[in-house]
Amino acid sequence: KEMKFLEQSGCLKGSLSAEEQLSLISGCLNIQAAVEGAMHIQECVPENLELKKKIFAQLDQIIDDKVVLSSSTSCLLPSKLFAGLAHVKQCIVAHPVNPPYYVPLVELVPHPETAPSTVDRTYALMQKIGQSPVRVMKEIDGFALNRLQYAIISEAWRLVEEGIVSPSDLDLVMSDGLGMRYAFIGPLETMHLNAEGMLSYCNRYSEGMQRVLKTFGPIPDFSGTTVEKVNQAMCVKVPNDPEHLAARRQWRDECLLRLAKLKRQMQSQ
Questions:
Q1: Residues carrying CATH 1.10.1040.10, the chain
Q2: Are strands 105-110 and 91-96 parallel, antiparallel or unpaired?
Q3: What is the CATH number of domain 37-135?
Q4: For 243-266, what is each residue's pLDDT tens digit?
Q5: Mind listing the pLDDT tens digit for each residue in 137-182?
Q6: Phi, psi torsion values for 257, nearest 5 degrees
Q7: Secondary structure of 124-191 in the HEC alphabet?
């Protein structure tokens, strides 16, 4: 249903029709049969280290020296995921962002022993299928996207917890404030454009930034009265039953679809 909607709205990725793409997808209960003839294997099982290691240990016994073994993990370190594998040079994390069809970023995180050619091949493949790959040069807990996301969530939580802003207003600060900028440019380019270049920005604002950053509190525990307060505010906006959540996710995806179209139009100018 989604594929046909994307096709009708002119947003289907790739050169094949929705029907042709769907005909290439099939399920399989045997892992050896599932990966036969593969050149890239993308693991998408739940975020459980032991389960993922079990899958990669099985794949390690099956594959040749050419196929890339890739994990969709959002924060498990490659050094833990791929430890002890014979084909470790062919292993990489390729972390997509939810929902991946509409948010194209993919973080590529190598194991310390991953071959540069594995990174290059995965980067080229992600570009070819319409994603936006970025190279994380070495592994770090949370990679890049979640480290930025958690920093925002942490300060957002403190602002609500300390009664500075309400949960709904906090979200508005992002959706109608920072998010408007960050949909097209990142924080570093924002700095560059908000003055006469980066050096000018740092000369002008570094003292104030350091002063504010020193007032940041400890890491919240995301529990107690604050989580009740935030949950209540979120449920007023979107009740947490499956029907309302699904409808809101669909609305979110339609917003992201339109934004993706606008970004493509802007890039082509």
A1: 144-237
A2: antiparallel
A3: 3.40.50.720
A4: 999 999 999 999 999 998 898 888
A5: 999 999 999 999 999 999 999 999 999 999 999 999 999 999 999 9
A6: -60, -45
A7: HHHHHCCCEEEECCCCCCCCCHHHHHHHHHHHHHHHHHCCCCCHHHHHHHHHHHHHHHHCCCCHHHHH
In SS3 terms, the chain reads as: CHHHHHHHCCCCCCCCCHHHHHHCCCCCCCHHHHCCCCCEEEECCCCCHHHHHHHHHHHHHHCCCCCEEEECCCCCCHHHHCCCCCCHHHEEEEEECCCCCCCCEEEEEECCCCCHHHHHHHHHHHHHCCCEEEECCCCCCCCCHHHHHHHHHHHHHHHHHCCCCCHHHHHHHHHHHHHHHHCCCCHHHHHHHCCCCHHHHHHHHHHHHHHHHCCCCCCCCCCHHHHHHHHHHHHHHCCCCHHHHHHHHHHHHHHHHHHHHHHHHHHHC
Global model pTM greater than 0.90: yes
Interatomic CA distance for residues 103 and 134, integer angstroms: 13
Q: Where residue 269 falls among pLDDT bands split at 50, 70, 90?
A: low
User: What does CATH list as the number for 144-237?
Assistant: 1.10.1040.10
Q: Residue 268: pLDDT above 70? A: no
Can you say whether the dihedral through the CA atoms of 48, 49, 54, 59 is positive or negative? positive
Single-letter residue type at 58: Q
